[in-house]
Design a protein that fits this description.
The protein is of the alpha/beta class. It is built from 14 helices and 18 strands. The strands form four sheets. It has a seven-stranded mixed sheet with strand order 5-4-13-14-15-12-16, with helices on both faces. Helix 1 runs parallel beside helix 5 and helix 1 packs parallel to helix 10. The longest helix has 20 residues. One of its GO terms (molecular function) is FAD binding.
């Protein structure tokens, strides 16, 4: 079979998953990653619908179920810390019985471990130029080496360097949603036991949760903002921006923010989506957030990465070396699925971050009322219907 020497740029969940499936089909896979190692930490993520089928076909479903967060309950609290509304963890997270909530870092390490034999990983390096030639794609790396590959796959996130090289600058494809997110590990000073607490202020939401097998807790911040100008590699500047956004906020926010400087896994980024008319150009193709970021607000970023990697690998294997036919088939199958999941992001973030004090007061009153009225479960199921529909909006190839 032709076109089997593949370079994957990015060792996130999308890139590692693609490496898993391509190697299983007999491809030679090289994965290059700018970071020095697989990234630990990160927020909890849900695997549901079609993504759960992919995990099962990988043969790691039992391992994934064993690493579930086991969050038992979730509550919305007011500034005084009083629980306005509480529900079980699955209902709070919009999960059905088969869905699995895990920490992103745990899933990442599991999948990486399943690909270390037979896949070449190059950490601390990145692609700096791509040139189509009659022999294939000539890739030049930051380390100075140059090699030719049959195909190149960009799996390097919303701000994909591979996409910029093959398609053009970010501003053509990345749509800012007007919100920022920060996640990091903090001491579990509230003594939470597999519980999540969420505080909502005008334009600012903060939450903290503990999970099984973790001594500490995670803090997560979501806030509305005009575009912020900052260095994406300057952590100190990002910490200052986060502190400024939550200055004067109540509840446990000041104490959670005091732990940011000691956290080993600080993340700060804008929420955005990637919209492209086509995900391939010549011998280069994109998957995951690089192709169609739906934003963390969708709750489906990891699922899109898992499903996209599986579908692309399946179509490449089925096409017998005709990469153009494989790329076309990949897009035809994935685009309706991506469309349904991208719709979730803007709708969800408006419920997660409320813009005014009036909205916050109304929402707290409704949550308190909902906790007492009969038929609450049916109402919540109705609210979560779009998520379940989007998660299953694809038929996977065999």
């Amino acid at each position: 079979m032709k076109n089997t020497n593949v370079l994957v740029s990015g060792a996130g969940i999308a890139g590692v998953s693609l490496a898993f499936w391509l190697r299983r089909s007999g491809f030679t896979v090289t994965v290059v990653e700018r970071a020095p190692e697989i990234r630990a930490g990160g927020y909890k993520i849900d695997i549901r619908g079609a993504a759960l089928q992919v995990i099962e076909r990988m043969g790691v479903l039992e391992e994934v179920r064993a690493m579930r967060t086991e969050v038992r309950s979730g509550s919305v609290v007011n500034a005084a810390g009083r629980r306005v509304a509480s529900m079980d963890g699955d209902t709070f997270g919009g999960r059905e019985h088969g869905d699995a909530e895990v920490l992103r870092g745990d899933l990442h390490r599991l999948l990486y471990g399943r690909t270390q034999d037979g896949v070449e990983y190059r950490f601390g390096d990145s692609v700096t130029s791509l040139d189509d030639t009659s022999e294939g794609v000539r890739a030049t790396f930051g380390s100075g080496r140059t090699e030719v590959f049959d195909l190149v796959v960009g799996a390097d996130g919303m701000r994909s360097a591979t996409r910029a090289l093959a398609f053009g600058p970010d501003e053509r494809f990345v749509r800012d949603m007007g919100y920022y997110v920060s996640v990091f590990t903090v001491p579990n000073h509230l003594g939470l036991d597999r519980e999540e607490l969420t505080y909502v202020g005008p334009g600012r939401t903060a939450l903290t949760y503990s999970t099984a097998r973790e001594a500490g807790a995670k803090a997560m911040f979501l806030f509305a903002s005009e575009p912020l100008s900052y260095d994406h590699r300057d952590r100190a500047e990002q910490e200052r921006l986060l502190a400024a956004a939550y200055a004067g906020e109540g509840w446990e926010v000041p104490r959670l923010l005091r732990g940011v400087g000691d956290s080993p896994d600080f993340l700060f980024d804008s929420l955005g989506q990637v919209h492209m008319n086509r995900w391939s150009a010549g011998r280069a193709v994109l998957i995951g957030d690089a192709a169609h970021c739906a934003s963390p607000a969708s709750g489906q970023g990891t699922s899109l990465a898992l499903v996209g990697a599986y579908v692309l690998a399946a179509e490449l294997a089925a096409a017998g070396g005709d990469h153009a036919a494989a790329f076309d088939a990949y897009e035809r199958r994935m685009r309706p699925f991506v469309h349904e999941n991208q719709k979730l992001g803007p709708a969800n973030i408006k419920r997660m971050v409320l813009r005014s004090r009036g909205q916050v007061r109304f929402s707290m009153a409704m949550l308190g009322l909902m906790a007492r009225v009969p038929g609450r479960d049916r109402l919540l199921a109705k609210i979560m219907e779009p998520l379940g529909r989007a998660a299953n909006a694809i038929t996977l190839p065999q």
